[in-house]
């Protein structure tokens, strides 16, 4: 991809319909034309959960560098951001190591039709993030992209207390009849160093889930060695909160599928669809169920309460 520093598109990730899913800005970067401070200002201006800065591949077939910024700082990884960037590469940059500025966000109708009719020339690519190399795959028949999420899971010794959860969702305090049903504390789970979530199970008090407000996650206490930021330019560790209900399990055939309803809140925002948060929750629940050589599957509803409902 060859483009100027002001070339961008906005994508709705985890949906095939406009105005659903979660929004992602993808900004083209050529020759490191943007400073880190400028990237942060651009991310703040967009105001989305994530903004991706996508670099050209050094040569056709080589990995593309991806930088991910939230409103508050750079992130080492985001499943939603990487998947959105990968899907854009497969859909718009397939078989090309560059694309013109004029065509980047508004390709001619004839070109779009030609691309749809032509056989897909890419079915995998590699994206280089601060969290490591991410392999992405594409099914051209279904027009579906998937990524292999690197993980190094860890359950921290200390849990987030009920009072710490209510401190960031104070509008729940008057509902004592329901908050009395909350657990005393909730697990803190890292899917990788620098990517941590408090997992709050509201199954025993479901009426609290729709009453959540966008805001901040409780500040977790992490085990030694899991606070990863080193140096001023290092990505900011991400701490979010996953609130969820366990709905039902389909026992029709293995792997049995458990339905969950989820809200992910962090850094002043609510994510309509959080791949990292949902992956962390699924990994944690699978560990709790256990079973040698067992397989677990989850169908996760997210974004329902903010009008951008999706199934992950």
UniProtKB/TrEMBL annotation:
GO terms for molecular function: isomerase activity. It comes from Ajellomyces capsulatus (strain H88). SUPFAM superfamilies: Diaminopimelate epimerase-like. Signal peptide: none annotated. InterPro entries: Phenazine_PhzF-like. One of its GO terms (cellular component) is cytoplasm. Pfam families: PhzC-PhzF. This is Uncharacterized protein.
């Amino acid at each position: 991809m060859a483009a100027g520093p002001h070339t961008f598109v906005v994508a709705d990730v985890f949906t095939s319909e406009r105005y659903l899913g979660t929004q992602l800005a993808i900004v083209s970067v050529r020759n490191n034309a943007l400073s880190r401070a400028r990237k942060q200002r651009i991310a703040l201006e967009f105001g989305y959960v994530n903004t991706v800065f996508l670099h050209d591949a050094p040569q056709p077939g080589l990995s593309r560098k991806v930088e991910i910024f939230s409103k508050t700082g750079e992130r080492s990884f985001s499943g939603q951001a990487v998947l959105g960037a990968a899907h854009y590469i497969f859909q718009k940059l397939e078989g090309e190591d560059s694309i013109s500025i004029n065509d980047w966000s508004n390709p001619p109708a004839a070109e779009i039709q030609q691309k749809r009719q032509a056989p897909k020339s890419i079915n995998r690519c590699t994206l280089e993030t601060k969290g490591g190399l991410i392999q992405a795959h594409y099914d051209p028949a279904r027009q579906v992209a998937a990524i292999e999420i690197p993980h190094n899971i860890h359950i921290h010794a200390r849990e987030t207390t009920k009072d710490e959860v209510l401190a960031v969702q104070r509008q729940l305090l008057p509902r004592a009849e329901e908050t009395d049903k909350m657990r005393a504390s909730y697990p803190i789970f890292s899917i990788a160093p620098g990517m941590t979530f408090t997992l709050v199970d509201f199954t025993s008090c479901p009426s609290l889930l729709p009453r959540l407000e966008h805001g901040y996650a409780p500040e977790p206490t992490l085990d030694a060695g899991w606070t990863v930021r080193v140096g001023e330019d290092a990505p900011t560790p991400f701490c979010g909160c996953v609130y969820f209900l366990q709905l039902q399990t389909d026992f029709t055939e293995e792997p049995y599928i458990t339905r969950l309803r989820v809200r992910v809140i962090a850094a002043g925002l609510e994510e309509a669809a959080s791949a990292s948060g949902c992956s962390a929750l699924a990994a944690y629940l699978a560990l709790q169920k256990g079973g040698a050589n067992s397989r677990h599957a989850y169908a996760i509803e997210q974004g329902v309460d903010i009008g951008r409902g999706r199934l992950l």
